[in-house]
Structure formats: C-alpha cells, structure tokens
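Sanity check

After download, print the first record. It should look like this:
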Amino acid sequence: MSVHSEIKRRSVPELMAYKGNKKIVCLTAYSAPIARLIDPAVDLILVGDSTAMVGYGMRDTLSITLQQMTDHGAAVVNATQQACVVIDMPFGSYQVSPQQAFENAAFMLAHSGATAVKIEGGVALAETTRFMVERGIPVLAHVGLMPQYVNTMGGFKAQGMNETAAERIVADALAHQEAGAFAVVIEGVAESLGRRITETLRIPTIGIGASPACDGQVLVTEDILGLSGDRIPRFAKNFGDAASVIRDAAQQYAHEVRDGSFPAMEHCFGVKKTK
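Expected structure tokens:
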C-alpha cells in the first residue's frame, strides 16, 4: 500500500478558499535563487512568460519556447517548498486545439513539478480551459491586457476603457469561471472594471494594473527590486533597490581583483591556515 507524502505547498482548493477571506500574494520567478528568496512570503509563484523579456531581453513574450518555460518551472519548483507554482503556457502551445493544450500542459507539469498552468484568452479559449480542467490540469485564466496578443491589441495598452470593451472582458472572465478555471488574472484594465469583475466572479481574481479590490495581486519580481532598468510600469512599485547592491558588489569585486587583494590565501586550496 502506497503512502502519500504530506503536501506542504498551498493547493488550488486552498487558494480558491481565499476568495472573500484573505488576499492572494503572487510574484514571478524564473530562477532558483529568486524563487527561494520569495517562497516564504508569497502564496503563489508565477513562472511567467515575461521571462522572455526579463530573463532573455526579448522585445515581447512571443518567442519563449515550451521547453524553456518547462525548464524555468522546474528550477522554481526545485527551489521552493511553500508556494503554489503556476507556469505560463507560451504562445502557440495551446491555441490550436484543446487537445494540443492538454498535451503541452501535461508535459510542462510532468517535467517541472508545477501545480497548474496559465493561459491568456477570452471566450474562445474557455473550451480549452474546460478540456484541461476535466482532465486534471488546474488552469489560471488571464484576461484584459494579454501580452501574447500584443500584435492584435496594437501594443501594451490598457483595456476595457469603454463600455463595449468592458462587457467583452467581463464575458471573458465569466466564461473561464464556468469552464472551471480556479482563478483569473486581470491585467491592465480600468480600475472600475477590475473591481466589477472581482465582485461578479465566485473565483478569486488576481490583479496586475487592475484594482485594489482584486482578491490578490501579482507583480514581476524584478520590477519591485529595481532590476528592470529606468522604466517601471505604472502599476508596479519599487519595494527595494537590489540593483545598487548588485552594482556595488560587482564594483568591489572588480576593484579587489585588479589590486590583487582577491583571492587571498584563505580562498585557495592546499594552503595551510595560519593561527
């Protein structure tokens, strides 16, 4: 008889129960060192396809591959113990059909150890959400400003700024709820719309540039650490200056290498320590 090990990570049902009770804290991570540091503080870690831009310097999120996302997911899972880990499905890996989405999501979860996947899309992708959920893959939906739709949206522009657009996004969120999504990310929408969707849905909403009323918030970790350069998105806030710490450490290292003070004998092998 097999014995199931105790699951310490926050689970999907646990996060769903946060609705109306407590806020979901979410940050992104793409590497083991960052994931290890943020794990004790957050409920959910999103291995976002934003790693294309943040980690690889790409101009958008469209070029990251399924294998890359899976590998980053594994790094985050291996370095953490508490947070629920969700991986973004990259562009082109789920839009062809629900069957394609399931096969690729199953690969990502099996080879990374993550708990769930996130997909971007409106009503048209709700059936894909349903197909995956019915087959055991938890889905976090993403509506509003959807970076994978950057070309059809004409750039990274706020969404839902008129009544017609707002109604469409409400319909998108409702469709994914009814399809079985455990939560919905709402990005880059009018504040009143983010609030309205949160009040309408039975499942949690996680905002990024949406509304304080959302059931949780997510930001790119590099944005809150001052590691994203001079331009910080309007919806983000710098909570620390890791950039200056890294810059100063690199400068001090360079100085000591150049003046010969590093490495010292204490950093070498085969050298007897002196009292």
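If your output differs, re-run the checksum step. Summary of this record's structure: The mean pLDDT is 94.
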